[in-house]
Every structure is written in C-alpha cells, then in structure tokens.
Amino acid sequence: MCGIVAYSGKNNSVLPILVSGLKRLEYRGYDSAGVAIFSNNIIYSKKAVGKIVSLEEVINKNSPLEVGNVGIAHTRWATHGSATIENAHPHYSQDKKIWVVHNGIIENYQEIKEQLIRQGMRFESETDTEVIAKLIGSLYKGDLREAVLAATRLLTGAYALCIICEDEPNRLIGVKISSPLVVGIADDEIIIASDVSAIIERTKKVIYLEDGELIDINNTTYDIVSFHNKVKKKAISEIDWDLETATKGGYDHYLLKEILEQPQVIKDSVRGRIVNETADINFGGLIEVRSRLKQIDKIVVLGVGTSFYAAKLGELYFNALSGVPAIAVMSPEYRYTKNIINDKTWLIAMSQSGETADTIAAINEAKKHGALVTGIVNTVGSTVARITDAGVYNHIGPEISVASTKAFTSQGVLLLMHAIMLGRQRGLDYSEASAIITAIKKLPDAMQEIANNHQSIESIAKLIYQDKNLLYIGRQYNYPIALEGALKIKEISYIHAEGLSGGELKHGFIALIDNELSTIALATNDSVTDKMHANIAEIKARHGKVIAIANQNLSNVDATILVPDVQSDFVQPLVNNVILQLLAYYVAKLRNLNIDQPRNLAKSVTVE
Length: 608
Ligand code: F6R
Fold this sequence. Notes:
Distance between the termini: 12 Å
Largest sheet: 8 strands, antiparallel
Number of strands: 26
Bound molecules: fructose -6-phosphate
CATH class of the largest domain: Alpha Beta
C-alpha cells in the first residue's frame, strides 16, 4: 500500500532523510516511488518505477537535489493506472508550483477532472492524485492553507496528503480523511508519515492527525486546524517502539523473526490481563463497556484475510464458552449480513494494521445500527482503534512482513480471553476457565520449544516445496487453522492450497486425492482426534501423501511433525499453527521467493 514521508526542518539534507523514511515503509508493498524537494528556491522532483534503489540511482544522477530542507516523498502501490513514472507521485499543479503526495482514493476525481479539463488543464497521468494537485493549483491565491482547505470541500473519498508550494518555500501542509497520517515532532524538525515506522529513526514524539484535520508547518513551527480553519490543540504521544524492534533482529527475513518472537510477544499480549484468583480476565480497554456487555445477545467477530480466520476461531470460542451466540463475518461481506446487527450486538473488529478499509467500512455501518463495537488491534492510534467504542491492543510490536503471523496468534489468544471474560459473567464455571487459563500460560513455552528447533521443519518443507497443490485439513478448533495454514502457503510460496474441515473431504475434495497430492493434517490430541485419524485413513487408502502435525508419531502417515501438548482443545491449535507458519516460510525459502514482500500483496489494504 502507498506510503508517505514529508520533512520540514533545519537539516539541509532532506533527501537522505526522505529516502531513509521511504525505506522504512517498504514493507507496506509498492511498485514505484518519488520525491520532490525545495532546492535553491525551485522544487525538483525525481521518480522511479520499482524499488527505492531505483529511485536512489535516479537521484544520484542529479546534484541540485542534494540540498534543501523541505520535501515530500511517496511509495505508490498502483490503483488508478499501472506502475509508471507518469503515475508515480508526487504530482503537480498546472504551473508545476504545487506538489502533492497522496494515499487513499478520491471517489469524485473523474467529475473534478472533467471540470478542470474544461478550464483548459492538461493531465499527464491516470491518477486521482494528479486531480488533487491540479485542483489545489486552480484554487491557489497566494495562501497554500486556504487553497488546500478549499479543495477539501470539493474532494470526496479517502486521502492523506502532503503538499508543498514553490511560492511558499518553508511551508509543508498535511491533511487527512480516512487515511492515516502521523506527525513526528523533534527539536529542529517535523516529519509527517503514513505510519510511525518512517518516523522513529528521528523522533518518538508524535501527533496522530484525526480525520478532518490539517497541519500547516512553517519550518519547525506548526498549527493544526479543522477543515473550518479553527486551531486545534493536540496532545503529543510517545511511541514505545524502537528502531531495533522494527528491524529484522538478525534473521534473514522479517517473517522468520516474527514467527520466532511469538513466545515473547504472546506473553506481552496476555500480560496483566489474567486474574488468577477468580479465573477471570480483565481488559483495561473494555472497562468502560463492561456494563453494556451484560445486555448483549449476539456477537459478530469481524475481520478479513488472516484476521478473518482468527475471527472464525473466535466464533468457536464464544459459542463454546461465553453463553452468547457468535458468528464470524468477513469484512467485505459485512454489508450483506448487517440486518442481523442491532443495539444488543457486540461487534469485535479484528485488524492487525487497524487501517483495513473493508473492516473500517463495516465498523462504521455497524455503529449506525447501534452495535457495541470494540477492536482487537495492533497499531496504536490507527483508524480502527480510534473509531471503535473501546478495545484491546495486541501489544506484539510492528508486524513488518506482509504475511501475518504473530498477529494471528495474538488475535486467537485475545479472542479466547474475551470468551472467558464474557463466559465468567454468564455462568462459565471456575474450573473450566481456570484450566483454559493454565493452557494459555503454557503457550509461550510450547512455542519456544518449536522455535528452538525451527530448522527441522526445512526437511519436511523439502517434501512438498515443488508441489503444485496442497490440502490442509483440521476439525473444530483446528479448522480455522487449516484455513490459515493454506492461506499462508498460498501467500508466500504461491502454491495453490485449500484449507478444509476433515469432515468435508468426502463431500468432494476426496476426488483430488492421488499419489501426487500431499495433505497436511492437524491431528493433535483433542476430542475429535479419532475423526481426524479416520480422515487420514481415507486419504492413505487412495494413495495420497499425508504430513501429520501430532503430539506423538503416527504410523500410517508419510511424516509426522511433533508438537508439544498443551492439553487444551482451545489452545493447542495456536501451537499447531506455528508449525504451519514455519512450513510456509521454509517452502518459500526453498523456492527462493521474496518472502517478506510477496508479489501482488500489500501489508495494509487501505482501499475497499
Ligand atoms: C495475511 C494477511 C492479510 C491480512 C488482511 C487484514 O497474511 O496479512 O490477509 O490479515 O489484509 O489485515 P488487518 O489485520 O491489518 O486488518
């Protein structure tokens, strides 16, 4: 997804600062990049298709770009028009004096474009962003803030914008609606970015801009105003992520780092939230809605992609433990189920990034129907965190690799804890709650045992890395794990995989089984193990290959991956999933693929 970095300050080498910020945003996924900076009172711009290194090569050919203390930069993930130099940001006004970078989508850009064309403007790109630049240019009468505010009255859609103007050399403006923008405040400089990763290298003091706010920076001073030009006072927050946290920590890939750090981060997710004496859960972020929870009669767990599979797990947890019926809904499908939502519904929105447009749209809709909406979100200050009534953070640090791993595990644990919390209000007995809590506490050690021996999964990966198709089967709580395991291998290995319930096999999938198809079977000890063994037998009888994930060696399979037994049907699937994450990682590594930035994917999908 697109990324923005903009700088204003006393440092005269704005270019390396912008480029370094863009590199911190690479994990979001992009296909072109560009910068525009003031240098000798003129705005210079350079753009390149492909990675930041290509942009650096272009920049290095041009010396005037080196000095300057105000600039804007962008990584673009193509939406309107393909990845070309013409479509790359920054875009400029007709007279080339006003330059704009933009994240988001302008809904009425065609209409505005036609009006501007009638006024004699010429367009060079297919983007909606160029329309913004030309529009601001057409409204400019000597004061950039006035022109931008006037433009906000005409634009509809989602946008985070940073804008500079050749006639106002020390001015930088940032503005946002429905797309994130964070402002880093240091002694001698101000950095604006679409997320904090691009800022933490220079400062940990940040202001999160809200929808309908504009920051007007003049060198190192600033005003934040509403779209009605009323000055607003905003608190400065301190980020607790350091740069080290956001880097690879010595591993070859962020993905491996993020899989292996789960024992630690899951402790962080759980920390301070378990009340041992009463076998209860205490989420500080839900205190203010606790009395409202007593009135709810239905739960909707919302998410998309990996967050949806966590939601499926949550549905099962709530139905088993909470005494309230639950259903998982995939965010983009929400609009077709909204009739079931009312003021007695508790909607729990799952989103690692907190910026997923489909999830945000569903939340806004659910709020209109009176639902209590809370979130389970990793990114502090993100849109989902702000628009929900209350919520719980994952506390797992940034997830840089595009494929989600540690967020899933944390979402699963936190949903289980939500189910215990509600269950304890509604009759879940002490001993059952206590047994699950004991298993949750075993989870980090079990994951550590797997992490200590993670290289051993490579030998299993060698059995399947050249396959074209795979099946993943699980039952009950392992069913969402089968779905997530299949998604993970699809995403990073580009092997077609299907996740299904073991019980579904006979109803169609079994037709695929032959001696070339491998099935990954989740067969750890639980109340449905016997049924899973029967499914494995069905596959073996048709000469299919089976790799089992189990607590002891199984005799009738081609390979068994052993996992520690945490003795809980609820928690064991989260242990099993770590194996599927590692399997996907090693298969992708053997296939020599771009593991952290798989093709066609973006970390944060901020368009519907
Ligand atoms: C899968 C993956 C995506 C995300 C999905 C939702 O590995 O990363 O499927 O899970 O785009 O993202 P969030 O959780 O940020 O709302």
